[in-house]
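Hi Y.,

Following your request, here is the sequence exactly as I used it, all 45 residues.
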Amino acid sequence: MKMMKLRYRIGMSDQWTEVVVSMFVAQSLAKEYLGYGWQAEVLSV
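Below is the corresponding structure, written out as tokens. Let me know if you'd prefer a different format.
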């Protein structure tokens, strides 16, 4: 299973949250978070 780093932040906050999850979970959560108006990135581990 390929692991990816999901990095996101709410609004214009200076604090990013990073989690390591499977590629599928990272892509799914990134789409959901972008829908909330948050910033989200999926990066290689």
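The chain has a mean pLDDT of 96.

Thanks again,
Q.
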